[in-house]
Amino acid sequence: MLAARGAALAGGLRVLTRPWLRGSGALALARAAGALRAGHGRPLAEPGPRRRRLGLSAAAVVNSAPRPLQPYLRLMRLDKPIGTWLLYLPCTWSIGLAAEPGCFPDWYMLSLFGTGAVLMRGAGCTINDMWDRDYDKKVIRTANRPIAAGDISTFQSFIFLGGQLTLALGILLCLNYYSIALGAASLLLVITYPLMKRITYWPQLALGLTFNWGALLGWSAIKGSCDPSICLPLYFSGIMWTLIYDTIYAHQDKRDDALIGLKSTALRFQENTKQWLSGFGVAMLGALSLVGVNSGQTAPYYTALAAVGAHLAHQIYTLDIHRPEDCWDKFTSNRTLGLVVLLGIVLGNLWKEKKTDEAKKSIDRIEN
């Protein structure tokens, strides 16, 4: 009996090591482990059914959902909420800037746009995965996406997309007519931007045009129309920001992209990436400064911009474009950067009331 178990264990080790030595990596190891369990009749150490652990992370929430729902939640990227944050934050900047002096941003609009960001990011990811299902199968990082892995059919994803867009339309219809028309105009960008990586080395620019539409929409939802002197530089700053974080993101897949013929700014910039990102960072800060001047912002806003500049400098200077894990860490750190901008807008707007009160007291003293 002991000899038989030893032979089985030795055979299992050979099954595990052969594919690993062939260079197929973690995916082959996982497959070999599965073969080991299946080929030897009984699992090595599985005492009963495994319990799913509950946690507060987005991935844990998705994993604790009913199994039939999980592929759809992963298709929306609910397990990776960083994209939703990056879509939502420019909306919050715009809503915050549109608030009356001395007031907090409109909480109803913030919640409305937050719900819309979840739905539209999910719709964008669904469209992206439908377009890229054949490419995703060839890239290690994306091969397990629900459509590429066969967990959801193209028809099912199309129906799911229709449901998301219908709910997003319900959100849009809560806004004024100007904003409804402006929001509907973004749909063309949402549909076409996933195709840009086949056409140009600047798909990140197309993503920036799409992801920062909320910088226009948030202001118009509050004010009834866009103020070009504020909305356009805010939109431009968001585009520059997207070029920074999504170029960093694209460096994770540059080898696979080059092999399968996809394009990105990571492949365009290559070893000159840090110089390009530095230029985008300067342009972003310049545009945000112009927003501050045109909207009458105060000291807290410019203090926040100084912190944003320091964050960008550290992010770019310490970036290692050859380490995918470092690229991911730098990419996700941009949520903090966006929140710092929002904090500066809110505090700067609250400071306006203090300045107004001081000005009124000075006038009263002069008149008396």
UniProtKB/TrEMBL annotation:
<dbReference type="InterPro" id="IPR039653">
    <property type="entry name" value="Prenyltransferase"/>
</dbReference>
<dbReference type="InterPro" id="IPR006370">
    <property type="entry name" value="HB_polyprenyltransferase-like"/>
</dbReference>
<dbReference type="GO" id="GO:0008412">
    <property type="term" value="F:4-hydroxybenzoate polyprenyltransferase activity"/>
</dbReference>
<keyword id="KW-1133">Transmembrane helix</keyword>
<keyword id="KW-0831">Ubiquinone biosynthesis</keyword>
<dbReference type="Pfam" id="PF01040">
    <property type="entry name" value="UbiA"/>
</dbReference>
<feature type="transmembrane region" description="Helical">
    <location>
        <begin position="331"/>
        <end position="351"/>
    </location>
</feature>
<keyword id="KW-0808">Transferase</keyword>
<keyword id="KW-0812">Transmembrane</keyword>
<keyword id="KW-0472">Membrane</keyword>
<dbReference type="InterPro" id="IPR030470">
    <property type="entry name" value="UbiA_prenylTrfase_CS"/>
</dbReference>
<keyword id="KW-0414">Isoprene biosynthesis</keyword>
<comment type="function">
    <text>Catalyzes the prenylation of para-hydroxybenzoate (PHB) with an all-trans polyprenyl group. Mediates the second step in the final reaction sequence of coenzyme Q (CoQ) biosynthesis, which is the condensation of the polyisoprenoid side chain with PHB, generating the first membrane-bound Q intermediate.</text>
</comment>
<dbReference type="InterPro" id="IPR044878">
    <property type="entry name" value="UbiA_sf"/>
</dbReference>
<feature type="transmembrane region" description="Helical">
    <location>
        <begin position="273"/>
        <end position="293"/>
    </location>
</feature>
<keyword id="KW-0496">Mitochondrion</keyword>
<dbReference type="GO" id="GO:0008299">
    <property type="term" value="P:isoprenoid biosynthetic process"/>
</dbReference>
<feature type="transmembrane region" description="Helical">
    <location>
        <begin position="177"/>
        <end position="196"/>
    </location>
</feature>
<dbReference type="GO" id="GO:0005743">
    <property type="term" value="C:mitochondrial inner membrane"/>
</dbReference>
<dbReference type="InterPro" id="IPR000537">
    <property type="entry name" value="UbiA_prenyltransferase"/>
</dbReference>
<comment type="similarity">
    <text>Belongs to the UbiA prenyltransferase family.</text>
</comment>
<comment type="pathway">
    <text>Cofactor biosynthesis; ubiquinone biosynthesis.</text>
</comment>
<keyword id="KW-0999">Mitochondrion inner membrane</keyword>
<dbReference type="GO" id="GO:0006744">
    <property type="term" value="P:ubiquinone biosynthetic process"/>
</dbReference>
<protein>
    <recommendedName>
        <fullName>4-hydroxybenzoate polyprenyltransferase, mitochondrial</fullName>
        <ecNumber>2.5.1.39</ecNumber>
    </recommendedName>
</protein>
